Amino acid sequence: MLDLSNSQTLHKQKPRLIEVVHQTIRRLHYSRRTGEAYVGWIRKFIYWSGKRHPATLGAAEVSAFLSYLATDRNVAAATQNQALSALLFLYKQVLGKELGWFDDLVRAKRPVRLPAVLSPDEVSALLRQLHGTHWLMASLLDGAGLRLMECLRLRVKDIDFAYRQILVRDGKGGKDRVTMFPETAVQPVQAQLGHAKRLHELDLREGFGETHLPYALARKYPAPAMKRSADPDDGVIRRHHLHESVLARAVKEARRCAGIAKPVSAHVLRHSFATHLLQSGYDIRTVQELLGHADVSTTMIYTHVLNRGGKGVRSPLDMR
Q: Is 219 a catalytic residue?
């Protein structure tokens, strides 16, 4: 007679902690990037603690680990905060345990950083070095204030040609917002949609045609990748959107060709969008809504370039 005792024992075994973390991340609809970051910090915490199970640890060990990151590893404040968020998620959402206060936590110092901003002439020079899809994506970052991943994940149904606006779904913090759709980009976007439609029809004829979207949705992206690839979540062959590194490399090369000395990334175009609107006299609350900032103090940082020179003071050298 077949002995099923071993198989039944294996079936009753509890899943590994990391597997439960992955399941909880998917259940709560966290983004893939957030999930990867959280799993990474949870692994580091476990190794730091000598591979002890987090259920046997508590606030004291979490505080010691975060202090270790600040003092021994010299991480930035944002990095320490991300590690804290990951461990709070682990204990509250996965282990069902409240950690309470961290009395002895050593906080990493948060340096004040001002965003790099391009002038209108520098933006024009940069865009002249870009072509095709690269130009279109960079134009939407600068003309609509989109974040890089918001631009890449933009869906056909989120572009409103009649009202000249873009609906950004599931942006930072899982929030939706509406931003402007620049007139200059209307015809290029329509042409890009035609290209995406042809690729989609080709995929359908060859037995594919799906793209991955959060929460089990399947729609077309306006900026599809050149090749199909396996989805890391379920292994299904799909055509995804372009990888973010594609535009990052293109912007870096465009900066070099344009002779711009400032450090330029794709996100600098979003900084420039906000600054140029404020320079044009638009209300800061309006700019805040277009950017999707939860607090107006985040938007206030762009006002630093509205002053002439150092805080608007005229240099004595220019007075002589």
A: no
Its pTM stands at: 0.71
Whether 293 is catalytic is: yes
| Catalytic annotation present for 147 | yes
Of the residues 220, 238, 270, 276, only one is catalytic, namely 270
Side chain identity, residue 110: R
> Does the annotation mark 270 as catalytic?
yes
Q: Which CATH class is domain 120-306?
A: mainly alpha
Q: Which CATH superfamily is domain 15-94 in?
A: Tyrosine recombinase, N-terminal domain (1.10.150.130)
Among the listed residues 169, 228, 255, 293, the single catalytic one is: 293
Annotated active-site residue 172? The verdict is: yes
Which one of 30, 91, 221, 302 is the catalytic residue?
302
Q: Is 267 annotated as catalytic?
A: yes
β-sheet bridge partners, residue 177: 168
Indicate the domain borders of the chain.
15-94, 120-306
Per-residue confidence of the chain (320 residues) as pLDDT tens digits?
445 445 454 445 677 899 999 999 989 988 888 899 999 999 999 999 999 999 999 989 999 999 999 998 888 888 999 999 999 999 999 999 988 777 678 887 767 678 889 999 999 999 999 998 899 999 999 999 999 989 888 888 889 999 999 999 877 777 899 999 999 999 988 887 777 777 666 666 666 545 544 433 334 455 555 454 445 554 444 445 577 888 999 999 999 999 999 999 999 999 999 999 999 999 999 999 999 998 998 898 888 766 655 556 666 767 76
Q: Of these residues, 147, 177, 195, 252, which one is catalytic? A: 147
